[in-house]
Amino acid sequence: MWRRWGFFRQFKLNVIQLARLRSEPDAVGRGMALGLFIGFSPTFGFQIFLAILFAFLLRQNKIATFVGVWITNPFTAPLIYGLEYEVGRMLLGMPPLGLNYLGSHLSWSLGVQVGAPMLLGSLVLGIPVAIIGYSMTVRLVPSLKYWKIPRWPRKRNFRKNKKNELSD
Question: Is 125 inside any structural domain?
Fold first, then answer.
């Protein structure tokens, strides 16, 4: 069943890659913090490219950065972006946009009214999440080295087993 769910498989593969890194926990933590910060930016669709670019420019751990960006995925993006918008809107003192306004006016002013609160909210939420992610990663990476991750259950090939039984 889990093979059909690509998201869970990819998450498990990312954890395995993170566990097998031969870097220091501090370097992995810095890469994770960079990935989490970029994952909270309102650049859905470009986050992985931005994360790898900044990981190269800042000489951070690329795999840890890639894993950190996965904080924003199709399941968590609506929650994260909605929270960013609300936090930014409250800090800027802006009124909430109604559904009637969103449906009838697609303009530059709408982009500013949505984009500015999201940008501010991403900064306000992204920095603490990156700091918490760094501290958790630095503590978690040494224990991940000794964690045994089981393989995916494999389907047995019954034809092969029957041939072996007949030849015995």
Answer: yes
